[in-house]
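During the second year of the project, the team shifted from modelling isolated chains to modelling whole assemblies. The rationale, set out in the original proposal, was that interfaces cannot be judged from single-chain predictions alone. As a representative example for this report, we include one of the complexes processed in the last quarter. Its constituent sequences, exactly as entered into the pipeline, are reproduced here:
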Amino acid sequence: MNINRNAKIYVAGHRGMVGSAIVRELQAQGFTNIVIRTHSELDLCNQQAVSYFFQQEKPEQVYLAAAKVGGIHANNTYPAEFIYDNLMIEANVIHQAFKVGVKKLLFLGSSCIYPKLAEQPMSEETLLTGKLEATNEPYAIAKIAGIKLCESYNRQYGESHKIDYRSVMPSNLYGPEDNYHPVNSHVIPALIRRFHEAKINHSSEVVIWGSGTPMREFLYVDDMAAASIFVMNLDKRIYDQHTESMQSHINVGFGSDLSIKELAENIGHVVGYQGKITFDLTKPDGTPKKLMSSHRIGKMGWRPKVSLIDGIKITYQDFLK
Ligand SMILES: NC(=O)c1ccc[n+]([C@@H]2O[C@H](COP(=O)([O-])OP(=O)(O)OC[C@H]3O[C@@H](n4cnc5c(N)ncnc54)[C@H](OP(=O)(O)O)[C@@H]3O)[C@@H](O)[C@H]2O)c1
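Output from the structure prediction step:
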């Protein structure tokens, strides 16, 4: 693989959890020419501003990790913002990148693109085979549009303009720069906060919502960043061997799941919490299992490196900062 480490690379969303991990990993791998803009410097929903930025900077590669992201509550409360912002960000970035001659682009989607009742583990082939989960359907539709934008530009301009725009679908991510908000955060940062506060306050128990039996998959964000750089630089022959032109996205997961109960025990252990863990069975469990098939990226030659326990240890240190 011939990788140009001096190529000018724009990382969109570099202040986010994933974008910041991609910048860290690019720097660690010796990439020297990284272009960034904060949200206030460049609103990616603004077509004119995005056009001007690309004309000025003319990057050679783009990692598209900027998105309007949130949990069930935010998705349910602001569905218009979730579909509009994400469609605009993708359309503006992908189209303006194409217009200035960007050859390689990586779009980050999400596992919520798959049907609510998709067979487990969810493989890339299940895309558009059934109804989506209603709560985040607008967000998922925008993410599916992002995949289809990449594929359509490849189909129309791949040969003539030598462009290669790819997509990766991360499973649940966690790690430094996560959002530790008590209500509005994902399960790992939320539990880290709750176990930490329980330890400090000498609480005798931590109550977990639901039965603790749902099975979930978690990937450490630096592994996701490494996978993103891996897919971006993967030889086109190998990429084409494992994908199809209208089914080109690649799942990136840890490859196995664990129960919420096991997850809580692991976090309690890392935090040093000595009390009891109990379960509030009056609260809903959600879907019993959500695991992505990472078979495709495995066959391409990528594996995650960071175990859940090591990832939680690093994330807890980040929380304490
Ligand atoms: N975190 C996960 O578990 C997870 C799982 C699957 C997929 N993903 C995907 O990974 C990508 C990144 O997620 P993340 O967790 O890193 O999200 P994040 O921490 O919220 O970061 C998103 C970044 O995008 C920026 N942004 C949003 N709207 C913008 C706009 N209009 N103009 C310019 N910048 C804008 C945000 O800036 P402001 O904060 O200033 O608005 C933020 O820095 C998303 O596509 C997401 O779907 C994440």
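The pocket of NAP is lined by residues 13, 15-19, 39, 43-45, 65-69, 85, 89, 108, 110, 170, 172-173, 186 (CB under 6 Å). The first strand starts at residue 9 and ends at 12.
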